[in-house]
Recover the amino acids of this structure.
């Protein structure tokens, strides 16, 4: 199946200048609070925390090791992206379609930055976070591009095509996190960005390989078609959940590809001014997905690769000593 993956990078909803263009207020969407639109509250951040804890055990666990003053802002970052993801993948309740739902979220996002407020608790919290840490509003432009792509593109011809998708679906997370956690002297945000990008990519790829069966049920294949062809593993094999030598060889190829990004990410953890143990814990916990797939005999169709809480604790302990070693090397 040939896929032409060419998309505009610039959001059609993003104003040319946030200071020159003003949108009219849109009807309230399902996430609405009675708080004044320009005032962020603890309840707004509590809603972000609820969303993160409900959606991701791995991300929530690693976030426990963040400094207390940073945690709510990381939860706001997670929530603003999760709401969009869910409008595309899970439920577009209150809207005629998923396309309308994600378009509304994008419009509300840009409107929040223009007006300085929002009727949405998640957007109020993220706007507050963005302003506190200087996260450019445009950081999320590629994210929205990827969410729109999810509605029309369900195959990727090459790994480069998949990477273009990850430019939006994954990389904005790491870049925003770098602003929130900060970098220490003598480093700069631009120096830390490549490692942040690598970790975002590695984590997302690990999720893709874990969720092959689940994504197939949704009509999506994140394994590059060129890899399916090279390893002679067909979509018919995916449909039947066939586990054979060709699948194992292909997965191991993807795992090694993913490991290169984990290795690149590890080199940048020491540049962060805070949250180094949390970031290294996230790296180890998401990397453990690859080992869990192997432990499940490569059954990515009916067995979900996961780690126990005890294993996560051991990985966090490992991360602590890795970070301390980095500090000692300085």
């Amino acid at each position: 199946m040939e896929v032409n993956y060419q998309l505009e990078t610039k959001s059609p909803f993003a104003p040319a200048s946030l200071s020159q263009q003003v949108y009219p207020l849109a009807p309230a969407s399902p996430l609405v609070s009675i708080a004044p639109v320009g005032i962020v509250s603890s309840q707004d951040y509590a809603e972000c925390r609820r969303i993160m804890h409900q959606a991701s055990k791995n991300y929530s666990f690693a976030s426990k090791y963040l400094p207390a003053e940073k945690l709510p802002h990381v939860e706001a970052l997670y929530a603003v992206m999760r709401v969009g993801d869910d409008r595309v993948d899970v439920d577009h309740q209150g809207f005629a379609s998923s396309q309308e739902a994600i378009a509304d979220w994008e419009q509300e996002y840009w409107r929040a930055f223009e007006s300085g407020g929002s009727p949405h608790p998640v957007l109020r919290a993220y706007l507050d976070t963005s302003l506190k840490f200087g996260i450019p509003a445009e950081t999320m432009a590629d994210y929205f591009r990827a969410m729109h792509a999810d509605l029309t593109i369900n195959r990727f011809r090459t790994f480069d095509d998949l990477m273009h998708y990850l430019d939006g679906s994954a990389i904005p997370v790491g870049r925003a996190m770098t602003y929130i956690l900060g970098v220490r002297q003598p480093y700069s945000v631009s120096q830390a960005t490549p490692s942040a990008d690598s970790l975002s990519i590695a984590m997302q790829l690990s999720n893709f390989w874990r969720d092959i069966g689940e994504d197939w049920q949704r009509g999506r294949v994140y394994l590059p078609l060129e890899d399916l062809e090279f390893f002679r593993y067909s979509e018919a094999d995916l449909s039947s959940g066939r586990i054979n030598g060709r699948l194992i060889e292909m997965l191991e190829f993807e795992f090694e590809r993913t490991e290169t990004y984990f290795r690149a990410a590890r080199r940048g953890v020491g540049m962060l001014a805070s949250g180094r143990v949390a970031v290294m814990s996230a790296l180890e916990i998401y990397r453990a997905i690859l080992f869990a797939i192997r432990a499940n005999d490569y059954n990515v169709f009916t067995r979900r690769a996961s780690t126990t809480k005890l294993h996560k604790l051991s990985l966090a302990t490992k991360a602590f000593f890795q970070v301390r070693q980095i500090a000692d090397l300085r």
Observations:
- DSSP finds 15 helices and no strands in the chain.
- Residues 226 and 252 are 15 Å apart (CA to CA).
- Residues 153-330 form a domain with the Farnesyl Diphosphate Synthase fold (CATH 1.10.600.10).
